[in-house]
């Protein structure tokens, strides 16, 4: 069956991400729950973070929220990938956006858009000049992160869990039908986006770099969005306990939710090699497509 077949099975409950919560009281969620400040209104997003799931989408959104010219939707909206939301129409979508001033851009993130069959066309139909942000990380690392999330979701709902290796290897060969593997075929998904959007409307954020040197990646995004540089190194501090950078903004410090940055299982070396070699060709084709290389295995 084609890749699309497996991706359409996305909605199975056990694979659903946990509902995301806003990390701090100074996010736009808090802002939008307030009464409408004079001179503001709700706008459909001029920029959308379309994925990828487990790429670092929440970190990217929260870090962009530092910028005074950016307001962000606090929750994942799933407008373009879930039919039951899409049929509610653009006004429904707009009403979920925070209030913004004229000099601010609205950003929402829904990681599921990247692998959705319908999202590219639907987003294009809404606004053909929208700017898209896609945050990607090493595809094998992304599979392990995806597995880890489902693992914890299942533990929390008292469902049985399987070892990573037992899902990924079936009858001695790589189980390429595993949805987490399908989601890491970046070239397959990117092809659909490029049917509707030019590369000059798309900016790819390196999720591995965002973890290590967030400022560097955010400055590139500021430039892509034609925003004045406002995000600075003092907006970040490394939290030793969490093992990740956290955010300092408006006199407050905040780290992402504990479900972000969870330890991954140690994966058998042979299995890792099988994954690396499976993705290698796809990565090469992706680099060509976007005219950009990444340090993936
Ligand atoms: N600063 C900071 N703090 C915490 N976590 C960070 C940060 N920057 C990037 N990341 C990485 O973000 C990964 C989660 O990605 P997403 O937010 O896209 O996940 S989701 O699809 O919305 O569930 C998450 O994946 P895991 O490490 O597997 O938990 C992190 O590696």
UniProtKB/TrEMBL annotation:
Q: Which residues form the active site?
A: 54
Record-linked InterPro entries: NST/OST, P-loop_NTPase, Sulfotransferase_dom
The GO terms describing molecular function are:
[heparan sulfate]-glucosamine 3-sulfotransferase activity
Coiled-coil regions listed in the entry? none
- Quick check: keyword Transferase in the entry? yes
This protein's UniProt keywords: Disulfide bond, Glycoprotein, Golgi apparatus, Signal, Transferase
Q: List the disulfide bonds.
A: 246-255
Write down the Gene3D superfamilies for this protein, in alphabetical order. Answer: P-loop containing nucleotide triphosphate hydrolases (3.40.50.300)
Q: What is its EC number?
A: 2.8.2.-
Q: Which reaction does it catalyse?
A: alpha-D-glucosaminyl-[heparan sulfate](n) + 3'-phosphoadenylyl sulfate = 3-sulfo-alpha-D-glucosaminyl-[heparan sulfate](n) + adenosine 3',5'-bisphosphate + H(+)
Binding positions for 3'-phosphoadenylyl sulfate? Answer: 54-58, 137, 145, 245, 260-264
The Sulfotransferase domain is annotated at: 45-260
Q: Which GO terms describe its cellular component?
A: Golgi lumen
A single GO BP annotation from the record?
A: glycosaminoglycan biosynthetic process
Cell compartment(s), UniProt: Golgi apparatus lumen
Pfam families reported for this sequence: Sulfotransfer_1 (PF00685)
So which domain of life are we looking at?
Eukaryota
Q: What does this protein do?
A: Sulfotransferase that utilizes 3'-phospho-5'-adenylyl sulfate (PAPS) to catalyze the transfer of a sulfo group to position 3 of glucosamine residues in heparan. Catalyzes the rate limiting step in the biosynthesis of heparan sulfate (HSact). This modification is a crucial step in the biosynthesis of anticoagulant heparan sulfate as it completes the structure of the antithrombin pentasaccharide binding site.
The family note in this entry says: Belongs to the sulfotransferase 1 family.
Q: What is this protein called?
A: Sulfotransferase
| Species assigned in the record | Hymenochirus boettgeri (Congo dwarf clawed frog)
């Amino acid at each position: 069956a084609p890749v699309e077949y497996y991706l359409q099975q996305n909605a199975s409950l056990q694979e659903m991400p946990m509902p995301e919560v806003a990390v701090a009281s100074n996010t736009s969620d808090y802002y939008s729950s307030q009464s409408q400040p004079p001179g503001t209104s709700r706008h459909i997003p001029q920029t959308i973070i379309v994925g990828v799931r487990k790429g670092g989408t929440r970190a990217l959104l929260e870090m962009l929220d530092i910028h005074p010219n950016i307001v962000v939707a606090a929750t994942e909206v799933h407008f373009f990938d879930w039919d039951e939301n899409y049929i509610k129409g653009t006004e429904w979508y707009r009403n979920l956006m925070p209030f913004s001033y004229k000099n601010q851009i609205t950003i929402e993130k829904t990681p599921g858009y990247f692998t959705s069959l319908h999202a590219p066309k639907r987003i294009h139909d809404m606004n053909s000049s929208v700017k898209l942000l896609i945050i990607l990380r090493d595809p094998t690392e992304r599979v392990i992160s995806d597995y880890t999330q489902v693992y914890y979701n299942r533990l929390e709902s008292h469902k049985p869990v399987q070892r990573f290796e037992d899902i990924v290897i079936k009858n001695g060969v790589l189980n390429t039908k595993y949805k987490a593997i399908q989601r890491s075929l970046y070239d397959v998904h990117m092809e659909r986006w490029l049917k509707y959007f030019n590369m000059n409307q798309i900016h790819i954020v390196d999720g591995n770099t965002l973890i290590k040197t967030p400022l560097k990646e955010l400055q590139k995004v500021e430039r892509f969005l034609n925003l004045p540089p406002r995000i600075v190194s003092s907006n970040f501090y490394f939290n030793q306990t969490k093992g990740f950078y956290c955010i300092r903004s408006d006199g407050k410090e905040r780290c992402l939710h504990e479900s972000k940055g969870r330890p991954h299982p140690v994966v058998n070396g042979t299995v890792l090699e099988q994954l690396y070699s499976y993705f290698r060709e796809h990565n090469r084709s992706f680099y060509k497509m976007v005219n950009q290389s990444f340090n993936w295995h």
